[in-house]
Design brief:
15 strands, Jelly Rolls, alpha+beta, 17% helix, five-stranded antiparallel beta sheet, 225 residues
Length: 225
């Protein structure tokens, strides 16, 4: 009888552990949640973006960039858009390119057909407190507006907006270091998404386990009486 009880308890314990192993669901949220775009800026020949700090460790899962979605689901880019992320020391942590006219990127509409096209990173990038990060995109011309100023936005939990930055040196994507004092809340063009987690209620196996433990205790008391 004792061996049977132990075997049953072991099986229920494994079932419970299996159910609680996935205690969270993964989703994403925008690093900069834009609710309104301001005035467009011309950006030909510039790398532009913004800096940010963190109060907690987060994981960046997507890079995105402003654009308009056409009727066939593609973007309105005249040229490819390359987006990069740098740490405070100037190291490029990762970058992606969203091709002109591509329809494979995920689109987040903000105002009508205007919003952000996102591309998932092959590996999420962990960012945390203690240093300043820069996200920026290279604009080498094209007629489509790239960035905006006087925008309405809020930041994701743990993300603190820093400054608008730009750089016109060279034709390649590089970390912009010039702080734009004219448009401190501008250069909304590149963006990113962060992984989020949502707690899942206790699994259905929990009542089963508690009932079984109670039953085992009752049997043990009867055998000892």
């Amino acid at each position: 009888m004792k061996k049977l009880l132990l075997s049953a308890l072991s099986a229920l314990t494994v079932l419970f552990a299996t159910n609680v192993s996935a205690s969270t669901l993964t989703d994403t949220e925008a690093g900069m949640a834009v609710t309104g775009f301001g005035d467009p800026l011309g950006n030909s020949g510039f790398t532009v973006g913004w800096t940010f700090n963190l109060t907690e460790t987060r994981t960046i899962s997507h890079f995105g960039i402003y654009g308009s979605q056409l009727s066939d689901g593609s973007n309105n880019f005249d040229l490819d858009r390359e987006i990069g992320l740098w740490d405070e020391a100037g190291n490029l942590l990762t970058s992606v390119t969203i091709p002109a006219g591509a329809s494979g990127a995920e689109f987040e509409a903000i105002v009508a057909d205007r919003g952000f096209f996102y591309s998932v990173l092959g590996t999420g990038v962990s960012v945390g407190p203690g240093q300043e990060y820069t996200i920026a995109a290279r604009y080498d011309g094209g007629s489509a507006p790239g960035t905006f100023y006087n925008n309405t936005f809020s930041m994701a939990s743990g993300v603190v907006y820093g400054n608008s930055v730009f750089d016109s040196a060279g034709a390649a994507l590089s970390k912009p270091t010039t702080v734009d004092t004219t448009y401190p809340d501008g250069w909304v063009g590149p963006n990113f998404r962060l992984e989020t987690t949502t707690p899942i209620p206790l699994p259905a196996a929990l009542p089963m386990l508690l009932a079984a433990l109670g039953g085992f205790g009752l049997v043990a008391r009867r055998r000892n009486s």
